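Researcher: Quick sanity check before group meeting.
Model: Go ahead. Protein one:
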Amino acid sequence: MFLRRGKKRKKKPLTTRGVRFGYSEQEVLKNIDFDLNKGELVAIIGKSGSGKSTFLKLIGGIISLNYSGKIRIFNRPKFLRKSKIGFVPQENAFISDLSLRDNIKVIGLNQGVLESISIKRSEEYLKMLKLDESMNKKPNELSGGQKVRFNIILSLLHNPDLLILDEPFVGLDFKNRRLLWHFLEKLKKKGKSIVLTSHLLTEIQERVDRIVILKNGKIFFSGNLEKLKSKLRIHYLCEYRFTYLSKESFLKIKKYCAYKNIEILDFYERYIMFGINYPKQQGLVESLFNKLNLKFQEIGFREPNLDEIFMKE
């Protein structure tokens, strides 16, 4: 009699369970459970101080002490899988006094890669990132955008399966950001799994497979933009400008919106932006304006982007 073997469970590039971390008496991360699938591109977002960079540094092994919980890279403890991880910090990882070529050789050797292989891989990535500069140049001779791209190349010399990028788009202009997004998409097609943080929310919603929001050290949300709209009950935005809006009238509008589950996402002098779950709610706020004898003009009704939804947070 033969026993049928069950299906072999796929090894996820990254799994965390119950991860906690803090400095002194301040707890930064609280019970983080997170999974990353092979070939997935995930953006972790949140307000400053929410723990985004700290979480990435824990995964990448930059922070290795004073945390509890489990971090697994392909089902093994992360310290056994360092060769699988490529970490791109916000700070430059290159050595300023060395040429690009020597940086590639030295950092490649530190990662356990032969010089010839490091040079070959770097040439491929230099071409993909359109970094057509002499290998004899020093990093300080590069532009800001070129330095960011070179920093990323150095993290890939050992051909990691998991790439972690901490705010990789900081300081990049539109052209360089698009170039970097295209590069990440090519890596994803090659089977790389990618986790990054960024404040460019509108670009994120168009490029990533999944959005993860950290709030007060916990995962508040994980999913796509449509799922987030449903969770926050904001599917539309309506914007109004008033001829005159007293403080008393605004307080009445605010109280009414709280009762009707309508969000006031932005308010400035005579302008209000509302977040609503269904179109009928627009009629409710306009009826209130009429009852309050307010003269108003609708200046926008549309679906929100991630930046605008995030204003609720």
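Researcher: Fine. The other one?
Model: Protein two, sequence then structure:
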Amino acid sequence: MERDYAYASYDALRNLFNTDGSVPEDGLRLVIDQAWRTVKIMCDVTLVEVVDLTMLCEAQLVLGIKGR
């Protein structure tokens, strides 16, 4: 990935995250749908099929952060 593109992607996506590190479900759905359109995949996918929050939950536990 080109550096400029990486910076722009980071800036665009960092505002999607909550302060506890999680992403609201509707925001996550938008990101997934955009990615699917970009690679021209036209099938429905559930969040469970593409998201694993295990590491986030473990990090929140270690850091004493109450998840949403």
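Researcher: One line on it for the slide.
Model: The two ends are 32 Å apart (CA to CA).
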